[in-house]
Specification:
A five-stranded mixed beta sheet has the order 2-4-5-7-6. It folds into two domains: 228 residues; 144 residues, Heat Shock Protein 90 (2-Layer Sandwich), CATH 3.30.565. Helix content is 66%, strand content 9%. The radius of gyration is 29 Å and the shape is globular. The chain contains twelve helices and seven strands. By secondary structure, the protein is α+β, with helices and mostly antiparallel strands.
């Protein structure tokens, strides 16, 4: 029986195999480098967006306090509303800025410096003015406050510069990675060409396709970053600053000259103020909704008792104003994002206070269900008909007019986004006129290993 000769690979085939192997390895390397660069650029861009939001909140507070002092405390609930509303948002944005210290460690110092200046402004300027509006000494305090805010702006500008330099450095690193990968590939092309010249044309075509894909990805990344930057600028400056001015100065116009205007003119002023305030709140809520999935922190063990305490502290003015009773039973440790879980509880507690009875009675409890916890927030309010139980979790969905209850219809959509990001489910159990119980599930911290969402 004759021996059967095994097929042997020719030098050309070996060269082609080597080229293919190197091309695949280089493609994976480039893909990883580009993906890493995209992630870093996105985080740096998000940092700059949060810096703009942080500065906007500080300006909101300063404008509200100045307007409150200018009217000698008249209609304090109207003028101090932006000041009070910014408090919980400020904590969330500050936590988000400090959460980026792994990617932007140099930005931590100016952010902490800005926070220290902000706390000094609250303590030394805002608090005395709010306690004694119209005091002849307040203009001097406002001048000192302006110096503090100017120093805060300088610190924030330093943080923005650091983020901008980080973007440039990441782009340069990506360029070096691409250049290195291409150099390696070209070297192998030369070696393979010496072994088998016939593979050179095919290899050159592969190289051209690879460069085109790199350029396409880089162009897409540039467009995405540009759109994010434009959105941050428009949302933080071009839209919000004019709205604040319209609301503040229209209210001053009515206060000073209202007695000289007829009923129709005063009604028109009310429409203008209400529209500006609602648009500003809508912009803030849309930004908060977008940050649920784009700026979440890695999941870690979280004590829900601390999250509930933070939420109640942010709502203390509303609780006192409505004379509400809030009962919180011991809550478990779960796997989650501490900032988002505090926001989740604050939104649900805020709804319970808004739609609760007279006075509102609210309870927060937790029940173990296998490897997850079922957390419920119950109230004695107006309740929700069953046909609306799914609808209320959609964005911009409202069951009442703005004259009856304020809001933008985004709060429960934010709650749903947070719970789903944590791998849970949220729903409501309610009948019209019988109160409502909002429940959601979270994973037990002891049953799950912490990791990124």
């Amino acid at each position: 029986m004759a021996d059967t000769a095994r097929p042997r690979l020719t030098p050309t085939a070996l060269a082609l195999i080597a080229i293919i192997g190197v091309s695949i390895a280089a493609g994976l390397f480039l893909n990883r480098a580009v993906d890493s660069d995209r992630t870093a650029l996105f985080m740096a861009t998000q940092f700059r967006l949060n810096v703009q939001t942080y500065l906007t909140l500080v300006i909101d507070e300063e404008t509200a306090v100045r307007a409150y002092d200018a009217t000698h405390g008249a209609r304090s609930a109207d003028f101090l509303q932006p000041f009070r509303a910014s408090q919980p948002q400020y904590d969330a944005v500050l936590a988000a800025l400090l959460a980026d210290r792994a990617e932007l460690p140099q930005a931590v110092a100016p952010v902490r410096s800005a926070d220290a200046l902000h706390r000094r402004w609250l303590r030394e300027i805002a608090a005395p003015i709010i306690r004694n509006p119209g005091n002849p000494a307040n203009p001097r305090l406002e001048a000192q406050g302006k110096q503090i805010v100017d120093a805060l702006r300088s610190a924030i500008a330093s943080a923005q510069d650091i983020a901008g330099r980080a973007v440039i450095e990441r782009r340069s690193a990506a360029g070096r990675s691409v250049a290195f990968a291409i150099a390696v590939i070209v070297l192998f092309v030369v070696v393979a060409g010496l072994i088998a010249l016939r593979s050179e044309r095919r290899f050159t075509l592969d190289q051209q396709n690879l460069r085109a894909e790199i350029e396409r990805r880089n162009a897409a990344l540039e467009r995405s970053n540009h759109l994010l930057q434009e959105f941050a600028y428009v949302a933080s400056h071009d839209l919000q600053e004019p709205l604040r001015s319209v609301a503040s100065f229209t209210q001053l116009l009515r206060k000073r000259y209202g007695e000289h205007l007829d009923a129709a003119a005063n009604e028109f002023i009310d429409f203008a103020v209400d529209g500006a305030v609602r648009m500003q709140q809508l912009i803030d809520d849309i930004l908060a909704y977008s940050r649920v999935t784009t700026h979440g922190r890695p999941l870690e063990p979280v004590d829900l008792n601390e999250s509930a305490s933070r939420a109640l502290a942010n709502l203390r003015f509303t609780i006192e104003e409505r004379g509400a009773g809030v009962r919180v039973t011991p809550l478990p440790r779960v796997l989650g994002d501490p900032v988002q879980l505090a926001q989740l509880l604050q939104n649900l507690l805020g709804n319970a206070l808004k739609y609760g009875g007279a006075p509102p009675q609210v309870s927060v409890s937790a029940t173990r269900e296998g490897e997850v916890w079922r957390v419920c927030v119950a109230d004695n309010g107006i309740g929700i008909a069953p046909e609306y139980h799914e609808r209320i979790f959609r964005i911009f969905q409202r069951l009442h007019t703005r004259a009856e209850y304020g809001g933008t219809g985004i709060g429960l959509a934010i709650c749903k986004g947070i719970v789903e990001r944590h791998g849970g489910h949220i729903w409501v159990e309610s009948q019209a006129g019988r109160g409502a119980t909002f429940c959601f599930t979270l994973r037990d911290a002891l049953k799950e290993a912490p990791g990124p969402a």
